[in-house]
Design brief:
- With 234 residues, the chain is of the alpha/beta class.
- The protein contains nine helices and ten strands.
- It has helices at residues 43-50, 72-77, 94-104, 111-120, 136-148, 166-181, 193-199, 217-223, 226-233, and strands at residues 5-14, 17-27, 32-36, 58-63, 66-67, 79-82, 154-158, 185-190, 202-207, 210-216.
- Strand 4 (58-63) and strand 5 (66-67) form a beta hairpin.
- The longest helix has 16 residues, at 166-181.
- Adenosine-5'-triphosphate (ATP) is lined by residues 14, 17, 19, 37, 39-45.
- Residues 5-233 form the ABC transporter domain.
- GO terms for molecular function: ATP binding.
């Protein structure tokens, strides 16, 4: 079966700084995969390259078999990215944000799906509220809806629980778990081993732009003493 994500020799330089130092990675369809690493490890860089937002200095990435550079449009359709930062036009309503994103993918009649997304993320009552009137937690849920607007098979979440309270965190995880059970491939980046361990089948540890460990969750925890691992990723 085609890999959901296939990364080969990914290198990224920002001037003299090497953010990715040769990453090879395969994520199978249907996996719930964690990319674990401290600040500056290269997680966002790898995700941005995967979403076609930045170009690698060397190497290649395929999403569901589509090269993110040579076959950008198809590759982009295959993936929904929930970014770390909340960037919205404050005067757009929730529904307008989702319609705009649908338009980006050429989806003209998407309102039924938008309504479904709003309902499953408990945003129906806020559908016509402007983004500036929403709490941080609600905005984060809009980000999730936005990533799903084109029904991508692969969903990538970049530290979605950073700065999020316990209740919303649990709600988000329940939602993402359900997506995984429905067959979506999930990749999430996190600083927290506990989060990766609770949710994911496999974990890759990224440090200074390189994968330093990659295994299924049980093996990874067995191989590395929990305390050492915590110190290494803190
Ligand atoms: P965090 O957990 O803090 O979000 P991260 O693992 O996502 O970190 P990246 O954001 O990918 O790490 O950053 C990797 C390295 O690349 C860091 O040293 C960062 O300062 C650098 N970097 C990222 N984006 C740029 C940029 N646009 N220009 C210059 N350097 C950058």
């Amino acid at each position: 079966m085609t890999a959901a994500i296939s990364v080969r020799g990914a290198v990224k330089h920002y001037g003299a700084l090497q953010a990715l130092g040769g990453v090879d990675l395969d994520v199978a369809q249907g996996e719930f995969f964690a990319l674990l690493g401290p600040n500056g490890a290269g997680k966002t860089t790898l995700i941005s390259a995967l979403a076609g937002l930045i170009r690698l200095s060397a190497g290649s990435i395929r999403v569901m078999g589509h090269d993110v550079v040579d076959d950008y449009r198809e590759a982009r359709r295959m993936v929904g990215v929930v970014p770390q930062e909340l960037v919205f036009d404050p005067f757009f309503s929730v529904r307008e944000v989702l319609r705009l994103q649908s338009g980006y993918f050429g989806l003209k009649r998407n309102d039924d799906w938008i309504d479904e997304l709003l309902a499953s993320l408990d945003l129906t009552k806020k559908a016509d509220a402007n983004m500036r009137q929403l709490s941080g937690g609600m905005k984060r849920r809009v980000l999730v809806a936005q990533a799903l607007v084109h029904r991508p098979p692969v969903i990538v979440l970049d530290e979605p629980t950073a700065g999020v309270d316990v209740e919303l965190r649990q709600g988000l995880w329940a939602f993402v778990r359900k997506l995984n059970e429905q067959g979506h491939t999930i990749v999430l980046t996190t600083h927290y081993l506990e989060e990766a361990q609770t949710l994911c089948n496999r974990i890759a540890m990224l440090k200074a732009g390189r994968i330093v460990a990659l295994d299924n969750t049980a093996n990874l925890l067995r191989a590395v003493d929990g305390h050492t691992l915590r110190v290494r990723i803190a």
